[in-house]
Every structure is written in structure tokens, then in C-alpha cells.
Amino acid sequence: MTQPEQRVNILLDFEMLGPGDAAKAIGVGASVFGLGPDDEPTARLVYEAWPISAARQDARTLTLDTIAWWSRQAPAVRDVAFAGIGGNARGEGGKSLRLAVKELVEAAMLAVAEETRRVTIETADADVWRRITWWAKPAAADLSLWMSLLREFRPDLSMLYGRVRDARTLWDDAETASGVEVKEDPRNADNVHAPGADSLATAWACARAMRLLKRARNGPVDVDRAVAIIPENKCGPACEGWCQASGYGDRGVARCNGATLDQGPAGPTLTT
Length: 272
What we know:
Strand content: 15-25%
CATH topology of the largest domain: Nucleotidyltransferase, domain 5
Strand order of the largest sheet: 3-2-1-4-5
Low-confidence stretches: 232-272
Oligomer: single chain
Helix content: 25-40%
CATH superfamily of the largest domain: Ribonuclease H-like superfamily/Ribonuclease H
Order of helices and strands: EEEHHHHEHEHHHEE
CATH class of the largest domain: Alpha Beta
CATH architecture of the largest domain: 2-Layer Sandwich
Number of domains: 2
Distance between the termini: 25 Å
Largest sheet: 5 strands, mixed
Radius of gyration: 19 Å
Number of helices: 8
């Protein structure tokens, strides 16, 4: 009997200088999370680039409102962010965005090899890549940016195989099923908006949400309710109707990328 392919959950947190997938990125953190053998929540940081230099991101955008917002953050975080904002092509102010994407891809591949112990980093990239389920809070912001960066720097990996999930939706489902509120670690308060700390805090909360769901439903955790339809600004009436009917329209994750809507007797169904 063929064993089901093991998936690895990776949560991304980007720090940006504006909204949308064309924004300049000045930081990113990535954490792996899940449930251990005894259903204990597990999470670990596997990558952080902070700051990333805004230099040589000429095709990407920023807003003055976002710059002003960064100026109001805690000094320890604000100062690092402004080092990235003031970065230059000589490498002052953080690593380049291209290098950060390269390192993040490598860290994700290594995390899959470590977590599954059934593949190695020498395995074909696409075979490793499709084992990842990508998470963010909110998915529409961070994962749309991630796909944009992959299209720019690693187009061979830009297909995420429909494995994109929204952390807030997972939390909501866990809270509804268990009656217990899901919270991020309050010890992260001093590091809010530092991407590594944010990623790890959110990943821990997702792992705890998975345990709550598993215990409340006395069975495996089904994360498909948390599917995130990542935007391309190409929603037609059928797509918008499906998103609204499924509750995604209220979460800001209702755009489509690499997904199709099959029109059946009962209405459109999502195929990823």
C-alpha cells in the first residue's frame, strides 16, 4: 500500500514597505510547525533575513504611509527596518532581496528533508517543493508576495501546487470546535514585526490550533478549510460567488492563483 506523501507546514512572515505583491520587502521569517508523536505542538524557526536592503528593488513599490507606520514601531524593530529602508547597492543595510529568496528556498528545501527523512536536498527541486504547505497570517498578503518573488527569481518553483493556507482561518476553526481562544505567545510582544519572531509566534499558535482541533474532533486535522485563494485580481462572478459562499470573502484571501473553478450541478468547486 502506498504511503501518503508527508507534508511540511512552513509559515512565512514578510515585512514590507507597502501593500500588494509588488511591494518592497525588508524582512522575512520562516518557521516549520506541526504536531509531534504525542500531539505536542512543535515549531522552529528555519530562516530569517532582517533587514533586507530596499536597494535594487527599483521595480517594487513603497508608500509613505507605510514608512510613517514603521517610524512608530518599537525602537529595536524600527531601527532595523530603517537600516533596510536606507540600504544601498553596496550591501549596507542588509542582504539583497535576490539573496534572501535564494536562502529562503534553500532553507525550505532543507526543512523538508529534515522533517520527512524520506527525501534529501539532492532530490529534484520540484519533488521536494510540492511537499510544502505554505501558511501566513494573512495569506493574501504574505503568500501573494512570496509567489511574486518566486516568479521573479525562481520561476521554476513559482507553482505552489495549491498548498497555501490561512493561519487565521485555522485559528477560527479551532476556537469554534474547542471553545478555547488561540493566541500568539505574549512573550513576543517586544519583537512584534521582527519577521523571525513573528513567524515563530504565529507558527506556535498554528500548532496549538491543530492540537485543539484534533482533540475536539477526535480525529485527524483537516486543514483544507483554511485553504487560501491567493489573488491575481482576475476573479470572475463564479469565483467571487464561490469565495463568498465558502466564507473566504470576509478574510481578505479571495483571489485566485493556479486554481480553477469547475462548474458542476451544485455550483463551482475549487480545484487546486
